[in-house]
Design goal:
ten-stranded antiparallel beta sheet, about 525 residues, Alpha-Beta Plaits, 17 helices
């Protein structure tokens, strides 16, 4: 990184508020969006996610921008997206023809399946950069959208000559687990007891000992890497039943449990030494849930609520993201939104822009529900695609007062969603096979009713037997019924046709919270 790169990027970013203001003044404003869904996160942690390469398809809902008849869109991927998948999204666009939208869409592949961030692959192809600049045309009316913002995305924005609708990578410290705790403290919201800015085994041991002194009744704690992904990078520590000193804690530390079966103590500590991390209490109560709030800070600095969700977590530690239900529970949704707004104002003050999500732990005891802020993901996340799907299909918007999503006809909308619907029996299904199942069963989304199912991450289906679904209903019960019926249809369609593997039991898949 050079000082000139940082300064050039900040100068380029001054274009973003101008582009934003033009769009606010004219919804049919002529512009170009460049979508680079690069998973620029720790690649060792990302490799633990099944079908991670196909997560680049999760931002296909950005095609909603083609509703604007004067918008152009360039979508880049490591490997080509099946043309039937592109057609699937385009034919679902309302108020514009699929053929008109396709003329304004450029799908670009780098034809590189290596396990590296897409942004890195693009940067090492100068001829591709030249072609992209030619596609973009007027750089003063264009912007870059990415899954997350790192120095790679900054370099890409500079190479393309367009601003990035995302945070300055110089501010990434606020997105680390240690940085999260400092933001929560500044915002004055409730968050777990613990310690941050740790960098060694000794730091972890001392932090665990200090935490038990503060919370004598605590029996578990979480040791987190500063840059974990999807619950990977979190380890659960169990305190010895009998109070012991640092030596006893150090010995018990070797019994850490992780999501990944491939993780080892030495590998985890090696990453901890490099990344740093935190130790914090494991929230325990009579009942706990894992809601989240998605927000966005606009180029003009205003923070805006986007959505709230009940997250479904699982895995060996119970911290792997599996899916979500929208919206968060009525009993504490307003509390979550109020806390999120406080965090959003602090992040805006520090210069953050773009989408982010705040994960909470909701805990209920004899005094009712309380909310504990757990972490901030300064990027798009697992709850971003399903909410994009809702916007993409219905054209409605969130009522910030109630936290409900209201369609243009006044109907309140709900959904159950996952990017982790999988079964060995689904392996070998091509996109054509899936679409045939959708059409024959009638489970697809219907604009006439405003309900149904949208599928995504379809590219992962054949190799991994995995895909994403967003099931939209007019009630939470209808959304869950649609989810259950989708699983039933897929299972029935893959049974007895010679495909290897049996459908996984429902306990091994995402099941929406009752």
């Amino acid at each position: 990184m050079s000082h000139s790169e940082v300064e050039r990027f900040r100068e380029l970013q001054k274009q973003l508020p101008i582009v934003w203001e033009k769009f606010q003044d004219d919804p049919c404003y002529e512009h170009t969006s460049v979508i680079v869904p690069s998973m620029s996160v720790n690649q060792e942690e990302l490799a633990k996610v099944t079908g991670a390469a196909f997560y680049e398809e999760r931002l296909m809902f950005a095609l909603i921008r083609l509703r604007n008849p004067n918008a152009r869109l360039i979508y880049l991927t490591s490997q080509p997206v099946h043309p039937d998948v592109v057609d699937y999204y385009l034919q679902l666009l309302d108020s514009v023809s699929a053929s008109h939208a396709r003329k304004r869409l450029q799908m670009v592949s780098v034809f590189d399946s290596s396990p590296r961030p897409l942004s890195e692959k693009i940067l090492e192809r100068p001829n591709l950069i030249k072609r992209l600049r030619k596609f973009i045309g007027d750089t003063e009316n264009a912007y870059l959208t990415c899954y997350n913002s790192t120095t790679l995305e900054r370099q890409l924005a500079l190479a393309l000559g367009i601003p990035m609708n995302g945070l300055d990578p110089e501010l990434l410290e606020f997105g680390t687990k240690s940085g999260n705790r400092k933001i929560f403290a500044e915002a004055g919201v409730n968050f777990p007891a613990g310690l941050e800015d740790l960098h060694s085994e000794d730091d972890i041991v001392n932090a665990l000992a200090t935490l038990r002194k503060r919370r004598p009744q605590i029996d578990r704690a979480v040791v987190k890497l500063n840059e974990g992904f999807g619950g990977e990078g979190n380890a659960v520590f169990k305190y010895p039943h009998v109070a012991t000193g640092s030596n006893g804690i150090r010995e018990a530390l070797h019994e850490l449990s992780w999501l990944s079966r491939n993780e080892t103590y030495d590998k985890f500590l090696g990453k901890f030494d490099v990344m740093g991390g935190i130790v914090e209490e494991f929230i325990a109560a009579r009942e706990t849930r894992s809601p989240s709030v998605q927000m966005r800070i606009l180029p003009n600095g205003d923070s805006r609520l986007i959505s709230s969700h009940e997250q479904v977590l699982g895995g060996t530690t119970g911290q792997a993201y599996l899916g979500c239900r929208f919206p968060a529970d009525d009993d504490y949704r307003k509390l979550l939104l109020n806390n999120a707004e406080k965090v959003g104002k602090v992040l805006s003050k520090h210069g953050i822009i773009g989408r982010f999500a705040i994960d909470f732990m909701a805990a209920r005891d004899e005094n009712g529900w309380s909310a504990h802020a757990i972490e901030i993901n300064l990027r798009m996340g697992g709850t971003t695609p399903p909410f994009h799907a809702l916007e993409f299909l219905t054209g409605g918007e969130l009522d910030a007062e109630t936290g409900h999503f209201v369609a243009p006809n006044g109907q309140t909308k709900f959904y159950s969603a996952t990017d982790n619907l999988k079964s060995p029996a689904y392996r070998g299904l091509l996109p054509e096979d899936l679409f045939e199942i959708i059409w024959n069963s009638g489970i697809g989304f219907k604009h006439s009713t405003g309900t149904g199912v949208l599928f995504y991450m379809i590219g992962a289906l054949s190799q991994y037997g995995k895909l994403g679904v967003t099931c939209i209903g007019n009630s939470s019960e209808e959304a869950q019924e649609l989810f259950a019926n989708t699983v039933k249809v897929l299972d029935a369609s893959t049974a007895g046709d010679g495909r290897t593997g049996q459908a996984a039991p429902m306990s091994d898949r995402y099941v929406a919270i009752e």
